[in-house]
Specification:
By secondary structure, this protein is mainly α. The chain is 81% helix and 0% strand. It has one domain. It has four helices and no strands.
Length: 106
């Protein structure tokens, strides 16, 4: 169940990051409401996942995969460029997540 909670937390994390951009400095009401609810949902579901997972593993996966999702969706939604440096960073994050899972015996 912890991995399901962590997956949900990652979706909230991506929504939070993308929503923050849409708030225009928290001057737009509905994007701001969405962003705050996403932040709360992400922290809540992460806390449920961390009842079982080690905090180092859970938090790192949450931020790492959330970052990758944010960059990919940022490129699709906001037309941000994905550069070779970003692709290399994706590979490093994914490699780190795999190594964390192996090291944790998951």
């Amino acid at each position: 169940m912890a991995w399901i909670y962590l997956s949900i937390a990652i979706v909230f994390e991506i929504g939070f990051a993308l929503g923050t951009n849409a708030t225009q400095g928290f001057t737009r009401l509905w994007p701001s409401v969405f962003t705050l609810l996403s932040a709360a949902g992400g922290i809540f579901t992460l806390s449920l996942a961390l009842k079982t997972l080690d905090v180092g593993v859970g938090y790192t996966i949450w931020t790492g995969i959330g970052s990758i999702g944010t960059v990919i969706l940022g490129a699709l939604i906001y037309k941000e460029k994905i550069t070779p440096a970003k692709l290399g960073s994706f590979a490093a994050i994914i490699g780190g997540v795999v190594l964390l899972k192996v090291a944790a015996g998951i």
